[in-house]
Amino acid sequence: xxxxxxxxxxxxxxxxxxxxxxxxxxxxxxxxxxxxxxxxxxxxxxxxxxxxxxxxxxxxxxxxxxxxxxxxxxxxxxxxxxxxxxxxxxxxxxxxxxxxxxxxxxxxxxxxxxxxxxxxxxxxxxxxxxxxxxxxxxxxxxxxxxxxxxxxxxxxxxxxxxxxxxxxxxxxxxxxxxxxxxxxxxxxxxxxxxxxxxxxxxxxxxxxxxxxxxxxxxxxxxxxxxxxxxxxxxxxxxxxxxxxxxxxxxxxxxxxxxxxxxxxxxxxxxxxxxxxxxxxxxxxxxxxxxxxxxxxxxxxxxxxxxxxxxxxxxxxxxxxxxxxxxxxxxxxxxxxxxxxxxxxxxxxxxxxxxxxxxxxxxxxxxxxxxxxxxxxxxxxxxxxxxxxxxxxxxxxxxxxxxxxxxxxxxxxxxxxxxxxxxxxxxxxxxxxxxxxxxxxxxxxxxxxxxxxxxxxxxxxxxxxxxxxxxxxxxxxxxxxxxxxxxxxxxxxxxxxxxxxxxxxxxxxxxxxxxxxx
Length: 517
Hints:
single chain, Fumarase C, Chain B, domain 1, Fumarase C, Chain A, domain 2, 20 helices, 55% helix, 5% strand
C-alpha cells in the first residue's frame, strides 16, 4: 500500500531522483500518461510490421547476442522470447533489497513508456500493475555484467510477467503465478521483440545510483554537523571556516560545507571559552578538523556530478534495437553502462574518504594526548572502564572495508557471449558495493556523533552551541549519550545510526540553524 499520496506520472518528462526514491521506498503510486500510451501503441505497430518482413531484424526474427545471425521462423518466435527470458534469468545469491527491485522496475517501465521499445500495451500494463500492487520479483545478487543492460536482474522481473519465478508480497516470498492470481492479474505471452525490450537496460545500476545520491546528500550534511560538533568538543577553531577564506578557493561544495559548520558552531559557549588568542596556544588544528570543508565539499561536488549523469540516464530510452522517432528500428550500444558505472565508482571513493576523516576525529576524542583535556577514551574510570575505545575500532573496521570497496569495478571488464560482448561496464557490481559503502558511512558518522556528544558533555559546565544541544537531545531520544560507567555499547551506537538515517540529527540541527545545505 502506498505511503505517499503524490502520484508519479510517466511518459511526459524524465523522472527525478526524488521520484525514483519515493516509488522505491514509499511505494508512491505510479501511472502512465495518455500520450505515452499512444506512443507505445504506435511503436508496437512498427514492430508488428517488421515481424512479417523477409529481411532479418535483430530480436524480432533472429537469435540474441552471439546468436544474432540465426534466423528464427515465425512459428517459433513466441518461444524465442520466452526462452530468452528464461535463459537470462540466471541470477544467483541472496535476493537484493525490495527498494532496489522497485527502482529497477520503475525505470524499466519508464523506458517502455517512451514508445521507443515496441512492447505491447498489455505487457506494459501488467508490468505497471506489479509496481502498483506491491508485487516485487525476486532478483539475485549476482548475474549482471552491466552491459546489454542488467540482463539477469531484469530477466527475473520479466519472468514474473510470464507467471514464472518468485515474488515477494508484503514480505512473504511466493510463486509468481500465485501472486498474480491473487491480484486478479493474468500473465502474458511475450511476442516479437518484447523479451529484449524487458531486459535490455541500465535500470538496476541506475536505480541504485539514484538511491545512493539521495542518501549521500543527507549524509554529507550530517557529516558537516558531526564535524562541527567534533571541532567544538575538541576545542578547535571555526575561524578557518570563514566565508572569505573559502572564497579564495571557489569550489561550490566546499563553501556549502563550511557554511554548515559555521551555522552549527554559531553561539557556542564552548568555542567562546578559548576564542582569545592569549588563552589558546594552538596555532592550527589537525587536518581532520581544519580541512573538513575541502574534503566534504569535494565529495558534495562529486555527488552532484553523479546526479547530472543520473539525470541524463533518467531522460534516456535504452533498448536494443530501438524504435526511432521516425519509425526506424536500429541496433545501438546505448545499453552499455559505462557512464553510470564510472560515477558509482567515484561515489564509493568519496564515501570512503569522508568516512576516513570522520573516524580520525573520533579517534582524537579518545586519545588523551590530542583531546585537549578529556579523559582517556572518554571513560568514566579509565582503566576500570574502557569508554568508547572499541566504538572507534568498529568505525576503523568499517573504514578499512570502505577503502576496499573503493577499488573501481568499472575497470574490470570481462568478455562474454562468445566475445560478441567483449567489453562490459560492471556497473551492477559497482552499485552493489556502493550500497554497502553508503551504509557504512552512515554508521561511521553515527559513531562520531555519539563520541562528540559524550565529549561535549564532559566539557560541562561549558554549554555547547544551540544546534549541538539540539542534536544531542535528538540522539538522547534514540539512545544514551551521557558519560558514565561502561555499559552495553552496541545499542547506543545502533540508536545513533538510526538518528542519522531517519533524519533526526539533521532535523535537530536545522531547528536551531535553519535549513542547511
